[in-house]
Design a protein that fits this description.
With 481 residues, this protein is α/β, with parallel strands linked by helices. The chain has two domains: 2-205, YjeF N-terminal domain (Rossmann fold), CATH 3.40.50; 211-480, Ribokinase (UDP-N-acetylmuramoyl-L-alanine:D-glutamate ligase), CATH 3.40.1190. The chain is 40% helix and 15% strand. It contains 20 helices and 18 strands. The chain has helices at residues 7-20, 25-41, 58-72, 89-97, 108-111, 133-137, 178-181, 185-189, 211-215, 243-254, 268-274, 304-312, 322-331, 349-360, 367-372, 374-385, 420-433, 438-456, 465-470, 472-480, and strands spanning 2-4, 49-54, 76-81, 101-102, 114-118, 144-147, 169-173, 191-195, 206-208, 232-236, 260-264, 279-281, 293-296, 318-320, 343-345, 388-391, 397-399, 405-407. The strands form three sheets. A nine-stranded mixed β-sheet has the order 12-11-10-13-14-15-16-17-18, sandwiched between helices. Helix 10 packs across helix 17 (420-433), helix 12 (304-312) packs across helix 13 and helix 13 (322-331) runs parallel beside helix 14. The longest helix has 19 residues, at 438-456. The two termini are 16 Å apart. Bound molecules: ligand NPW, adenosine-5'-diphosphate (ADP) and potassium ion. Ligand NPW is lined by residues 10-11, 14, 26-27, 30, 55-60, 62, 119-126, 128-129, 147-148, 173-174, 197. Residues 210-479 form the YjeF C-terminal domain.
């Protein structure tokens, strides 16, 4: 599991450690890790040209000290001081003593074999300031290595409130910062290397799961299992107009670990033709047999209101997606008030905007603004609806009403294809029916769906939602190892 801590958490941990270590120890550790990563990135250190961009805080100090270490190994190191009057004095002295020099020549950026971005780290607020902005647009020859955080990216949220410097590699100290895991910030970070500087950290604010975390959690039948004990998932999706959504949600559900899939709705004929293993009925959730979780909304069209009301009235976990979310936004959180079982909402940013309007009574915010602030959006929705929220998009974020947040590290933009969300909804519902709690079900579903999308688009080929569903067993296999 990758763990990310907020600036406040990092600073508290740092204070504890600083109180018992000689001054400068942490910065020396950080600089040593940074210089070691740079040395690995350069074909050879001796004779390489390195440019340090140094801001006014300790982030600049780290970069200058690392520059000094590289200069001692024979690199030709130049430093641009973005705030010369407030530069980290000890860092600059170390660099000069090691033979490095200060420059004001922006052309050094394009000539450097490696650039160290020490403009601003966890103390940064707002995008790059005007004096640093030109560097974001300059041609580069070698890799840009961000010190702790790419400058201009908000470390706590991944928001990029202006211009930021795109890195090829980020060397993060002590822990990931949420902004390194969540787009748009994550897309500026490149490959993230973690350097241990000895911090003792609390529970992380954000988690990103990996194969081993998931493997421990995926349901598997035991000798005592039968199809009902494995869980039955109900799918209330599709309509005469959108039968395909039903087929795709069922395709995801059949690969999600439940023992049986029960379909309730207008597309029963199409569903059973494609998947004869499905139990089908043409009415709504209330008239269907027992299930352990409902998925309601994909392609439900005009039937969404009725299907949603019936599913929400049931005592089992309910996943609301697509047209079900549009319907839920009309009533707002009140529709969930009487529920005794958990609810999982799976909006994309357009649906998230409608859900937020359902809370505030005001016009929906712009979906692009919500995409730029993914963590905050997922958290706000989870708190307002008292439901677990899986916010889809370039980084899928999952937020539980109690405050836990996970971000999904798998996936590919090729998943932005019609119907792939329906597959995800069915898959997540199946995991809910198999007994996972909403946070785990959503985490596992996003992870497997993302892996399947990558597998199906391997080599850079377009995928269809059907192919994503077909790749799900392979994704399970990869996770299980
Ligand atoms: N914590 C740890 O455990 C360890 C931390 N370490 C390192 O320290 C870093 C944190 O250092 P820090 O606290 O000095 O803050 P930092 O990121 O340098 O920025 C503050 C300065 O930047 C300025 N500034 C603000 N916004 C800006 C912008 N948009 N664009 C430009 N400038 C901007 C702001 O100026 P002001 O607003 O006052 O004008 C202020 O002077 C951390 O990321 C890591 O690298 C390691 O050495 C070891 C262990
Ligand atoms: N830029 C992107 N990068 C990665 N994944 C994306 C991107 N855009 C969309 N996705 C993923 O594609 C799927 C699309 O779902 P959705 O928007 O509900 O589509 P549909 O309604 O057509 O099924 C989601 O899993 C989402 O996370
Ligand atoms: K930086």
């Amino acid at each position: 599991m990758r763990r990310a801590h907020t600036v406040q958490q990092v600073r508290a941990a740092e204070a504890v450690l600083m109180a018992r270590l000689p001054e400068g120890t942490l910065m020396q550790r950080a600089a040593a890790g940074l210089a070691a990563t740079c040395a690995r990135l350069l074909p050879r250190v001796y004779g390489s040209r390195v440019l340090v961009l140094a801001g006014s805080g300790d982030n600049g100090g780290d970069a200058l000290h690392a520059g000094a270490l590289l200069a001692r190994r024979g690199a030709s190191v130049r430093a641009v001081l973005l705030a010369p009057e407030r530069v980290h004095a000890a860092g600059l002295a170390a660099l000069l003593a090691a033979g490095g020099r200060v420059t004001a020549d922006q052309g050094e950026f394009g000539r450097a074999d490696l650039v160290l971005d020490g403009i601003v780290g966890i103390g940064g607020r707002g995008g790059l300031r005007p004096e640093a902005q030109p560097y974001a647009a300059l041609e580069r020859r070698g890799p840009v290595v961000a010190v702790d955080v790419p400058s201009g990216v908000d470390p706590d949220t991944g928001e990029v409130p202006g211009v930021a410097l795109r890195a090829d590699v980020t060397v993060a100290f002590g822990t990931y910062k949420p902004g390194l895991l969540v787009d748009p910030g994550a897309s500026y970070a490149g490959v993230v290397h973690l350097v241990d500087i000895g911090l003792t950290l609390p529970e992380p604010a954000v988690q990103a799961w990996q194969h081993a975390d998931l493997a421990a959690l995926l349901p598997a039948p035991s000798a005592e299992s039968d199809k009902y004990r494995r869980g039955v998932v109900g799918i209330a999706a599709g309509s005469a107009r959108y039968p395909g959504a039903a087929v795709l949600a069922v395709a995801g559900a059949l690969r999600g670990g439940a023992g049986a899939v029960r379909y309730a709705g207008r597309a029963a004929e199409e569903v059973v033709r494609r998947f004869p293993e499905t139990l089908v009925s043409e009415g709504g959730p209330a008239a269907a047999g027992r299930v352990q979780a409902w998925v309601v909304g994909p392609g439900s069209g005009e039937g969404a209101a009725q299907a949603l009301a019936e599913a929400l009235a049931s005592p089992v976990p309910v996943l609301v997606d697509a047209d079900g979310l549009t319907e839920l936004a009309r009533t707002g959180p009140a529709a969930l008030a009487g529920r005794t079982a958990p609810t999982l909402l799976t909006p994309h940013t357009g649906e998230a905007a409608r859900l937020l309007a359902g809370v505030s009574g005001q016009a929906p915010p712009a979906a692009d603004d919500l995409a730029a602030a993914r963590l905050a959006t997922a958290r706000r929705l989870a708190a307002a609806y008292r439901a677990t929220v899986l916010l889809k998009g370039s980084t899928t974020v999952i937020a539980a009403p109690g405050g836990a947040v996970r971000v999904n590290p798998t996936g590919t933009p090729w998943l932005a294809t019609a119907g792939s969300g329906d597959v995800l909804a069915g898959l997540a519902g199946s995991l809910l029916a198999a007994g996972l709690d909403p946070l785990d079900a959503a985490t596992a579903a996003a992870y497997l769906h993302g892996l399947a999308g990558r597998e199906a688009s391997a080599g850079g080929v377009p995928v269809t939602a059907t192919e994503v569903a077909r790749a799900l067993p392979g994704a399970w296999g990869a996770v299980r190892g």
